[in-house]
Design brief:
Elements (H helix, E strand, L loop, with lengths): L13 H29 L5 H19 L2 E4 L2 H8 L4 E5 L6 H8 L5 E7 L6 H10 L2 E3 L4 H14 L4 E5 L17 H9 L2 E8 L1 H4 L10 E7 L11 H17 L2
Parallel strand pairs: 1-7, 2-5, 2-6, 3-4, 3-5
Antiparallel strand pairs: 6-7
Length: 253
């Protein structure tokens, strides 16, 4: 959506934004500690993963509200995600706000998790929380080990749960989408899952690279039609086809 105005439109008056961010500064650290330490006490309890993810989702929603940021998704897209099964979710990556916005808009009926670099598991506190939440550790130093770990984790997931992958690998610096890595396509081919592409618009306008304080405004999130890999075609062809479909939606006026 390149035709949007350069400056985002705030969704709250200045005084309201100031009050909200003051509350965030005062209470945010305590809320973060609660989220971080809950797994230490409850990770072994039955049903922990389900209600803990809902707690994290609610926390992301409150964070965006306190930052005066709205994440917008159509009712039709929400319904499509609520009924989505047997998929891998791929999203473009523009800003540190992307994960929070996605957590906010995805309906509770849709379960998902993220892959994270295995270095995080070296901390006992993070390891207990990540394992309890069902995050997938990825050994980025070895591509073959990372693929094996990710494929095995996706195989073990119930159809209702999807792993979220960023095919660009990092936040892109370009006006359009960056080059896609083949990981999501390879995992989809090996597990028989479809790919659900999600396109995030405008998050980099609120928190671009190098910025530390996000602006107020709206992030638009769009769910595309399921992508089915063509096992008779080369992997690179599927990667290009997936990128082109997401780029067409991202670049649309």
């Amino acid at each position: 959506m390149q035709n949007r105005p350069n400056a985002p439109t705030p969704i709250d008056p200045f005084v309201v934004r100031l009050l909200k961010r003051t509350v965030l500064v005062l209470l945010g650290p305590f809320y973060f500690l609660i989220i971080a330490f809950v797994p230490l006490l409850c990770a072994g309890r039955k049903g922990f993963r389900g209600w803990y993810w809902r707690l994290v989702k609610r926390s992301c929603s409150r964070l965006l509200w306190l930052l005066s940021i709205r994440a917008d998704m159509t009712a039709a897209d929400r319904a499509a995600l609520a009924s989505d099964t047997g998929s891998i979710i791929v999203i473009n990556h523009r800003s540190h706000l992307d994960g929070f916005a996605l957590m906010h808009v995805v309906p509770d009926a849709k379960w998902f998790t993220f892959a994270a670099k295995s270095e995080f598991w070296k901390s006992k506190l993070l390891r207990i929380g990540f394992d309890g939440a069902g995050l997938v550790p990825i050994e980025r130093a070895s591509g073959s080990v990372a693929m094996e770990t990710l494929t095995g984790a996706v195989h073990a997931m119930p159809p209702r749960r999807s792993v979220v992958l960023f095919p660009e690998g990092t936040r892109t610096k370009t006006q359009s989408l960056g080059e896609f890595k083949a990981g999501a396509v390879l995992v989809a081919r090996q597990t028989g899952r479809t790919i659900t592409p999600i396109v995030i618009h405008d998050s980099d306008r609120l928190l671009p690279r190098g910025a530390h304080v996000p602006a107020s405004g709206t992030i638009h999130i769009e769910v595309l039609d399921p992508f089915i890999c063509d096992l008779d075609a080369p992997v690179d062809d599927d990667v290009a086809r997936l990128r082109n479909s997401m780029m067409a939606a991202f670049d649309a006026p």
